[in-house]
Amino acid sequence: MVELKHRSSDGAYYLELDPGVYSNHLQYKHTYSVSDDSSTYTITASVLTYARSCVIKKNEKISNLGKTLYLYNQAAVAAFGE
Known about the structure:
The chain has one domain (about 1-80). Helices cover about 35% and strands about 25% of the residues. The protein has 2 helices and 4 strands; from the N terminus they run ββββαα. The strands form 2 sheets. Strands 1-2 form a two-stranded antiparallel sheet. The model has no long low-confidence stretch (mean pLDDT about 90).
């Protein structure tokens, strides 16, 4: 399940993803849509999409997070299959 959330600190909206994603399913893509009164915005993403966006950051800690998510997924797929 995906839920659109509103952050009160800065007014931004974000998608809260279901916490029940298995480690060997981080590569599975899902389509998410958000609508207002006049437009619908649709994205297709996976946890590894987020991981890739982390890797290209200049902040070393964030970049390492993305690399770790990728390696974690690869180890899980090797151990449990897809």
